[in-house]
Design brief:
The chain has 396 residues and is an alpha/beta fold. Helix content is 43%, strand content 15%. It has 16 helices and twelve strands. Bound molecules: NADP nicotinamide-adenine-dinucleotide phosphate.
Amino acid sequence: MHAKTLRSVVVLGSTGSVGTQALDVIAANPGGFKVAGLAAGGGRVDVLAAQAAAFDVEVVAVADAAAVPALKEALAARGASPVVLGGHEGVAEVAAWQCDTVLNAITGALGLTSTLVALEAGRALALANKESLIIGGPLVKRLARPGQILPVDSEHSALQQCLWAAGPGGYDPSGVRQLVITASGGPFRGMKREEMADVTPEMALAHPTWSMGPVITINSATLVNKGLEVIEAHLLFDLGFDRIEVVVHPQSVIHSMVEYVDGSTIAQASPPDMRLPIALALAHPARVPGAARPVDWTKAHTWTFEPLDDTAFPAVALARHVGAEGGTAPAVYNAANETCVEAFSRGGLRFPAIVDTVAKVVEEHRVTPASSVEEVLAADAWARARAAELTAGQSF
Ligand SMILES: NC(=O)c1ccc[n+]([C@@H]2O[C@H](COP(=O)([O-])OP(=O)(O)OC[C@H]3O[C@@H](n4cnc5c(N)ncnc54)[C@H](OP(=O)(O)O)[C@@H]3O)[C@@H](O)[C@H]2O)c1
């Protein structure tokens, strides 16, 4: 790779979809990176111990303190002896560990503390955990230096790359007419609302183009993920919601585009593979040769684009609404959704009721400015409790 020095990386959420792909990138570039620390929830201690041994890490943590003894045993069996930490404080300690870049690939609102801790410690933050930026918007923005957050989401990595093409003067929002975020449309693209009444978790988990963790996969089916991404783009690139468009592109090859005021549109294209945006966020400003396969220009391709059906998929319009409200509104949108996704996944809620319930919870919420972590977490907790009340006793 083109980076001049070995970059040390901490991977939070290392046993998940993004985490394991990040370690693939690192393993393929031993001269480019070393892994200083790892953290995970504690559900897969054998995988975590194998990673810790393979990368000879200094520290490893599990959020579930009860998993520490099993982790220690699995590490000892592999002859590895890193520092072992447990509980949410242990994960936070790894987020602040001495390194160049922290990759936050924890899933859900639980990632907020790690994002804040890594920023405060001055690390470059490769951010897959979009939820932390979205729910903690004002707090995260207050802490982050310009360029300190490197987006891992493929769409935002694409937008970032398209914005680098702004010219020698660098990014100037006044030169941009709009950001265009692409969406695969998920497994239910083209369906009407009524047709989605009986879809099952298995159907929602069958994403047509991406292989991802379960929460983001269901969020891609409801288009809540796209709603979260619209808010993420607003926070990362400081453009109003009226200048962030969503377009459905089922092939997932154009990952997003920037339309400039002169009518020029710059797009970023690559076959769907998270290793590319992960590698770019870890190596920035270098690029990692061979991080992913490029488009094969010797073959014929058809790339199509269509408008989003906001009636069948109201999640994006709702996200624009909560994003524009700001304060605690995005945290409530996210938390109510996480509760509803859980309920849907265990057969306790119909698919269209996920976004309907989120909308109800958002409507009932009295927005406050989100000026402290406690305030955000209180709004998050209220939204989870309210969503649980509204969905109790439902099933399909
Ligand atoms: N997957 C993708 O392609 C993709 C693309 C773009 C953005 N993202 C974003 O990246 C994030 C991760 O997604 P994913 O698909 O990789 O999720 P995932 O496969 O479900 O993995 C989640 C990871 O987080 C760990 N974890 C859970 N709670 C934790 C805690 N309290 N502290 C530390 N680690 C904890 C899990 O550990 P255990 O194994 O112990 O449970 C696991 O390693 C999400 O915010 C998602 O929206 C993902």
